[in-house]
Design goal:
This is Carboxy-S-adenosyl-L-methionine synthase. Keywords: S-adenosyl-L-methionine, Transferase. One of its GO terms (biological process) is tRNA wobble uridine modification. The protein contains 9 helices and 8 strands. α3 packs across α4 and α6 crosses α9. 36% of the residues are buried. Strands 1, 2, 3, 4, 5, 6, 7 and 8 form an 8-stranded mixed β-sheet that branches. The protein is α/β, with parallel strands linked by helices. A hairpin with a 2-residue loop joins β7 and β8. Helix content is 43%, strand content 23%. The protein has one domain: Vaccinia Virus protein VP39 (Rossmann fold). The protein is globular, with a radius of gyration of 17 Å.
Length: 236
Amino acid sequence: MIDKVFEKSITKQFEFDEEVASVFDDMLNRSVPYYKEMQRLSINFACNYLKDEDYVYDLGCSTASTLIELSKHCQAKLNLIGIDNSEAMLNRARKKAKAFGVDITLINDDLHNIDYTNAKLILSNYTLQFIRPLQREKLVKKIYDSLQSGGIFIFSEKVISSDSTLNKQSIDEYYEFKKSQGYSEFEISQKREALENVLIPYTQDENIKMILDAGFSHCETIFKWVNFATFIAIKK
């Protein structure tokens, strides 16, 4: 379905409810620049580390697209677990996983409540930015503690610039991108207002510092487009 969520005036802050879930795949592709390329790169990097029976967790898995694509492109037979606190998203994920014949364990819960047992890979695509900073850092520490030695954490986030001029230019560039995807000025402004104080981005350096402070030996940006970035963190 086509994303028309913000064609009408908003009455609440942004949430991943049934209305959003029904158009989420279209929303991602039209709202996140080079989303498919980011997903492809994440999967390619991940496959280098994975072996048969490894456990993979996707935090904020939404409709399970990344886990389905990982299953399709990785040679290893994996234990796939998707976690999301939106039942509406998971309902879509179940239907998609069944349609593609991919076995995924889907869990409706808060990310802080999950025991990420035997994790070799943990994924998080544009999820940490919705978690309050103090809780975000606690979750990243939990991710580090849960990963096996040699495990990896791949995550994507919207980022901001520490330079105010560059930050404004990035926002303007992103605005033009959304217009090029068919969103009206009204839709763009409505979504921005709905996300205010819900999505709290870090700078690229702040994301890397958070990762290293949690104990990871290395964190590197593997993809970036203006104010969107994908990182890989390694636990030695």
